[in-house]
Each structure stands twice: as C-alpha cells, then as structure tokens.
From TrEMBL:
It comes from Herbaspirillum seropedicae (strain SmR1). Pfam families: Alpha-E, CP_ATPgrasp_2. This is Uncharacterized protein. It comes from the Bacteria. Residues 514-822 form the DUF403 domain. InterPro entries: ATP-dep_Glu-Cys_Ligase-2 (IPR051680), CP_ATPgrasp_2 (IPR025841), DUF403 (IPR007296).
Length: 833
C-alpha cells in the first residue's frame, strides 16, 4: 500500500473520490499510476511538473480570462496527474454520450423542421420560441446529410454514489477538443512510461473522423472541398485552441473579414483572389455569424452566410441555431423526447431539473429553495449558477422576486456535490491535494447517422477545495483524461482512406493563403526585421558609451542625434549628452513597453502578427517566437545587462530568419514574409544613412565604425579591406555592393526578385518602385563621392534623395501590396509592369 503520496491526502466523506474507494483503498485502475509516482523522488516529480509548465509556455497554449489582471494570453494550466477512467466505465459513457448526441441532432431536426414535439406537447413552445438561441431564419433548413450537430460536447458530474449526471450540453461550437489533444501531447512528454504501461487509448481518431465527415458532407460538386475554421479572432478566450485545431486539421484559420458571399456562395479572400469555401467549422456563436439576418451589430460575421447555408451551398458545422439546445431548462423534457423519437430510455440522466415557467415547478423551487441551484433557463442570460443555501438577506429576496416576476427565465437544478480528484500541490512540496472536477466528453458525427466519442476528453478542475462551480474563466485548471484499455482492445487510429482521384487532385493542388494571413506574415517579416535593426542600433550605441575612448566620447552627440531622428527617445536639448543620461535613454528603449520605438513595443507587435498566423509556423518556429517577449520583461539596471538582453534578442531574430528559410514552404505567404523583411531592411538602412549624411563631414568620418556596426557590416568590411573605415569603401559596401545582404543594392535586387515572383504567381503588380530605385543607384558613379571630386556635392545630393526615396518607396510599396492583395474582393488584375 503506497504511503508517501497518500498519507496526507484529504478524503471527503460527502463526495465521491475518483482515486480512493469509500474504505480509503486505492481503486484498482489507479494502482499502476500511483506505484510509478511512488518510485519517483520529490525532485523528479517537481521536475516533471515544471516540464508540463514549460511545455505549455513554449507551445503557447493560452486561455484568455476576460479582465484578467495577469493580462491577455493567460497560460493554460494542466495538472501533472491525469483523470483515470476504467475501461468498463468508459464503455458505458461511450454508449450514453453517443446516444445523447443522436438525440440532440434529432431534436434540432424537429425544432427547425416539422416541430412535431411541440405539437404533441412534449416540448413547451416558450422554451423554443422564447429564447434568443432559436433563430427563425433557420427554420426549414435542411443541412447536407441531415446532420445539424456535427460536433457535440457534454459536461458530466459524478454524485456521491458514483453516478454520472449531465450538467450541460454544448451544441454551438463546443470548445475543448484542441485543449484535450494538447494536454495529451504534453503528458506524453512528461509521463511517457505511465501512458505506455497503462495502455491509454489515443484521442486522434476523433480528429480523423471530424475531418473525413466534413469532407464527405461538404457540397463540393466534384471539387476538392475547401474547409475553413471560423474564429472570432485573437481576443476570444480560446483563440489559442482555434489556431491549434486549424494546424492539426489542416484547415485555414479565418475570421469573418476573410470571407465574403457572392452569388449566394461563400468565398475565401486569398492572395490569389476569391476561392469558394465548401464547409465552415465554426467557433463563433450563432447570432454573430451573419449581421444581415441574425445580429445586425455583429462585426465578426459574414453578411449573407445564412442564405448561402439555407440553399445548401455551404456546410456549417454546427448548423446555425444549434445553440437553442444549450438551455438547461430542456433537461427535464429530454427523457420523454428520446422515448418518442427512438423508443428507448436515456442512459445518462440529467441533473434533476425544473423549468420555472411551469407553475408546479416554480412552486417546488420556492418550497425547496435551499436545496437547489438556480440557473438561467437560456444561455444568453450570462448568469452564474446561484446556490440557494448560500444566498441570504436582500440578495435572496431579490432573487425570489425575480423568480416570481419572470419564472420562464429560470430553471432549478438539484445540488450535486461534485466528485473530487487528486492534484499535485503547486507549492512544490511532495503531496497530493483534492479538488472538485467535472468531465467534458466530446462526440463527432460519423456522417452516417451515428456518433463517435473521443476516448478521453477534458477534465476541468476547480481552483479551490470543495467548490461546486468549475469554470476556466474563474481560474480553473485542467487534467488529461486517460481511458484505460486492455492491450488487445486498443484500437488502430489510422486516418481514413480517401478516394484515389480526390487524393491525386489534392496532392497536385496548392493551398491558397488567405489575405488576412498573407498580411500578417508580411508584417511578421517587417516587425522581426524592425526588432533586429533597433536592437543592433541600441547595442552598438551602448558599446560606444562604455569603451571609454576619447574619440568615442566625441561622437556621442552625433549618434545620439541620429538615434533620436530614428524615433528613440533621447535626452532633450543636449547636443553633448552625458554618458549616464545617454545610457539610461538607451536602456529605456530596450524595455519600455509604452515607448513608440522600443524593443519591447516592437516585440509585442511581432507577437501579435505571429499569433494570427500560428497555423503557418512550425513548432520550432513558434517556440522561438513565444520566448522572445520574455527577454525584455526584466528591469535593466546596467548597460552591460542591456547589451546582454539585446544580444539575445538579435540571436532570436536571426533564428527566426533561419526558420523562415528552412522550415516554411515557399508559398505566397512566405514570399510576402520575405518582402516584408526586405522592405523593412531597406527603409531602415535608408533612414540610417540619410541621417548620417546630414552630419558635418568631420563627424561622418568619426562615426564610420559606428555606422558599419549599426548596419551589421563591420566584419565584412574588416575582412575585405583590413583597414580603418574610410568613406568610399564604406559607401560602396553599404550602398553599391549587391553581395552585402545588409546593403541598399541587395535590398533593391531582392525586392525586384520577390515582387516578380509574386506578380507571376498571383497576378501582375507594378514594379515601378524597386525598378526606379535600382535605376537611380545604377546611374551613380562611386568615384564622384570622393571628397576631392568636383561633383561631390551634387553626388551627395543625389544619394540623399535616393535614401529618402527608398524610405517613402518602402511605405508606398507596402500600401500597394495591401491594396492589391490583402483586401481583395476579386482576383488581382494586371497593373502593368
């Protein structure tokens, strides 16, 4: 009998314990796991718990709690201990959840079809027509294959005697499947031995079925179906999961602005123009999906989407209007409805519920107020459950008055004391604690009238002991769910086979990049280069404040002025700033998140752009990106510390460039990322050189080494010329040399190359800007820039104009790209060469 982990574990006699039986003994299916944990030292357990947290951070798994003091993108939390479900128990849950999913689909078919259940008195009309969840424009809807409910989730709780009860049904766009899969992937790294030895069933078959079902039901009329995942956007609490699911399923992640309806068909705005969408896996609430017919103030939806779906031109999963079934007031009517539709009793009972819109139910609720939980009858009410025994005084009187005045808006449920499960202490000590839990199980339609249940699911854990409301928005955590099977019962999880002709077409085809993704990849390229350029400028300038050489001190006023012209906040009204003042300004430009031009600000912009194209990035690339903002979160007190941070930032940006070159497919999105990098490098180099040229000649000579280092060309200069920096070779290297990747000529050439490729792939675009800049440069003669040359002033004037044209040209080119490709409503058209 294990002792160390269990000796301090608290057992509650009034709740079911998932790990221990009523006599305090381990339940049989927990023994293998506890035995393995007992063989691990406290340090090893702590190390594995840290591995879980580190994996969540590096994978960028977040759950955004609204108004969270921790800020946006709050890290997802996963306990090291899984929730174990025995094979026998899962067999029952699998049958019961599949049965309930079938019932929900049949109920939707009747509500939006013949409404026989209402006519026969089995379903009160007020529970359907009296709530916002019922969408009248969807009445008469016949979805492809007769499937309204493509994905379903159910929240379960266990009572004291071990019976599973249904707490709620999730029928709109049920969340959690992505988190469940991410939990499993993380646990596979942290607890590989236990997963193997306990024969835990894999959840992957669920996702294969989902993808195959949507592909089969999509109204593609012989085309390879384009399926997209519709998200409300990065500010949604589960956006991290949306991006992960899109990456896992291979679907483009889109927002409402990425879609348009033309000729009652839905199209995706891509860099190639409009491409028809055949199916939409939505993670957006019903009424927000279409501002034309559903909710007029929605800025998230697609005007005309309802009509396109009504005509069968696009599959929407789940069907619009499916949220009507999330009303808890329906629970009491479901057993009779299942008997009527399918002639069999419900296997999973709902928590005893009373809809207060019926007078006997209201009378019972008022008479047994302290024994019940008052919940909203309709999900649109956004009301938290209220435990009758916990509300007193004026609040109690107001709630009772509301029940009496608007009884149809409320339902009452039996108070079920949630079961408890062990969690690892977060304090780092070697002990288990108990927390109340609820289990979310997922089912997916197989497209043939049945439902397949994901082996496992998502267990949510209350943040405090004996808490009977489990909510991630209130600080809850999660557990991976392990369904234990005998080895010979483990099922194969191979992806379904497709039709040969369809596969050949799919293999030969290319994935179009949405305009929204293309734009964010473009800005990801710009911000990654902008961060690197700024970090190198600050590091170089800081170094010159620290070396103590007289000539360095003499040029500090010049470089301080150039930095200020580039947007860095420098000491005011001081042509010769003190070294201390200059260092403090440079250090602030590293970490100040409120400064318009700072490394912290630019990293935040980079993270925002990357966050919206996560499905396009490799896991290694994403890991590198998620680590970057933390580099500048600590306070910097010394120039040396600032230099160390800036060095790390520059190395990380170089790593991003490597990922772009090695990990990304050379599609249109990659091309825009590269164009963004070269536009930013060109504009930065031009602005730097323009301000340098405005210095007096003597100060220019003193600052040549600084200029080379700020332009990341000092090593090339030393290797090539092996002499102190001089004006003409520096000018040649930074402006005229087409082999220097940081020089102006190189940027002009690469922009011409990438713009030509984009024009060939996506449609013609004006090449005037990079061609004009190259022509200006080719017309210049390097010898004219010698100080003794008679035309040196005219040459310098032409060079200054070129630098300013390059800066303005970069902005103009960025605007042209946005106008032609990032907001297209038709295919790109020829604009001349």
């Amino acid at each position: 009998m294990p002792q160390r982990l269990l000796e301090s574990y608290p057992v509650a006699s009034d709740r079911y314990d998932e790990m221990l039986a009523a006599d305090g003994r381990l339940r049989p299916h927990w023994r293998t796991l506890i035995d393995q944990l007992e063989n691990l030292s406290p340090d090893m357990l702590r190390r594995r718990a840290n591995e879980v947290r580190d994996a969540i951070a590096s994978d960028g798994v977040t759950y955004n709690v609204y108004a969270d003091p921790k800020g946006a993108n709050r890290p997802w939390e996963l306990d090291l201990l899984p929730h174990l479900v025995s094979s026998e128990e899962w067999d029952f849950l699998e049958r019961a959840v599949g049965q309930r999913a079938r019932l929900m689909n049949g109920l939707l078919s009747d509500i939006y079809g013949p409404q026989t259940l209402i006519a026969e008195g089995l379903l009160p009309p007020a529970l359907v027509f009296g709530q916002h969840g019922y969408l009248m424009p969807c009445h008469g809807w016949q979805p492809p294959g007769g499937v309204h409910l493509h994905a379903y989730a159910i929240d379960l709780a266990r009572s004291v005697d071990g019976t599973w009860w249904v707490v709620s049904d999730r029928t709109q766009g049920p969340s959690g499947t992505g988190y469940a899969l991410q939990n499993r992937q993380i646990m596979a790294r942290a607890m590989p031995e236990a997963l193997r030895d306990m024969h835990v069933e894999s959840p992957h078959r669920y996702f294969h079925t989902l993808r195959a079902m949507l592909t089969r039901l999509a109204p593609a009329q012989g085309e390879v179906p384009l399926i997209v995942l519709l998200t409300p956007g990065p500010y949604n609490e589960t956006y991290s999961e949306h991006a992960f699911l899109a990456h896992t399923l291979g679907f483009p992640l889109v927002e409402g602005v990425d879609l348009t309806v033309r000729g009652e068909q839905v199209f995706l705005k891509t860099l190639n123009g409009l491409r028809r969408v055949h199916a939409i896996l939505r993670r957006m609430d019903d009424d927000y999906c279409d501002p034309l017919e559903l909710r007029a103030d929605s800025a998230l939806g697609v005007p005309g989407l309802t009509q396109a779906a009504r005509l069968g031109n696009v599959l929407i999963a789940n069907s619009l209007g499916s949220g009507v079934l999330e009303s808890t007031a329906l629970h009491g009517f479901l057993p009779a409805i299942n008997e009527r539709l399918y002639g069999e009793p419900l296997l999973l009972p709902s928590v005893a519920s009373w809809w207060c819109g019926e007078k006997p139910a209201l009378d019972y609720t008022l008479a047994h107020f302290d024994e019940l939980v008052i919940v909203p009858a309709f999900s649109s009410m956004r009301m938290q459950p209220v435990f009758g025994h916990s509300v007193t005084g004026a609040a109690r009187r107001r709630l009772i008055e509301s029940l009496q005045l608007q009884p149809h808006a409320y339902a009452a449920q039996e108070w079920v004391r949630l079961s408890q499960a062990p969690v690892m202490s977060r304090s780092g000590d070697y002990r288990l604690m108990n927390r109340t839990i609820s289990l979310r199980v997922f089912a997916v339609a197989d497209g043939e009238g049945g439902y397949q249940v994901m082996p496992g699911g998502l267990t949510r854990v209350a943040p405090r002991q004996r808490r009977d409301v489990v909510s991630m928005q209130q600080g809850g955590t999660s557990k991976d769910v392990w369904v234990l099977r005998e080895e010979d019962r483990l099922e194969a999880h191979d992806a379904p086979e497709g039709h040969g002709a369809e596969n050949v077409t799919l293999i030969k085809g290319t994935v179009d990049v949405s305009s929204h993704s293309g734009e964010n990849l473009f800005w990801m390229g710009r911000y990654s280069e902008r961060v690197k350029n700024l970090a190198r400028l600050l590091r170089t300038t800081l170094q010159y404040t620290m070396d103590g050489q007289t000539e360095s001190r003499g040029m500090l006023g010049s470089v301080s002025w150039i930095c200020s012209q580039l947007g860095v906040q420098m000491p005011k009204s001081d042509p010769r700033p003190t070294i201390t003042g200059l260092q403090q300004s440079l250090q602030a430009a590293v970490v100040d998140p409120s400064a318009p031009v700072s490394v912290a600000t630019q990293l935040r912009q980079l993270a925002n752009a990357a966050y919206q194209v996560r499905e396009h990035l490799s896991l290694d690339n994403w890991h590198a990106l998620t680590k970057m903002p933390a580099m500048v979160q600590e306070r910097i007190n010394t120039p040396a510390a600032a230099q160390h941070v800036l060095g790390n930032v520059i190395d990380a940006c170089s790593g991003l460039a490597g990922h772009a070159l090695d990990d990304m497919t050379r599609d249109a999105g990659w091309q825009f990322l590269m164009v963004g990098r070269h536009i930013e490098r060109m504009a930065n180099m031009a602005a730097l050189f323009d301000n340098f040229l405005r210095l007096p000649p003597q100060r220019q000579t003193a600052a040549l080494s600084w200029l080379l280092e700020a332009a990341s060309s000092i090593v090339t200069y030393r290797v090539r010329y092996r002499r102190t920096p001089e004006w003409l070779p520096v000018l040649h290297l930074l402006v005229f040399d087409v082999s220097n990747p940081h020089g102006m000529a190189y940027q002009f050439r690469m922009l011409q190359q990438y713009m030509s490729e984009i024009a060939q792939q996506l449609g013609l675009l004006s090449m005037t800007i990079p061609t004009h800049l190259s022509s200006q440069l080719e017309a210049m003669n390097l010898s004219e820039f010698a100080h003794e040359h008679p035309n040196v002033e005219q040459a310098n004037a032409r060079l200054t104009q070129l630098m300013r044209d390059a800066v303005s040209g970069g902005y103009m080119l960025s605007d042209d790209l946005s106008r032609h490709y990032f907001t297209p409503l038709t295919a790109p058209v020829s604009q001349g060469v």
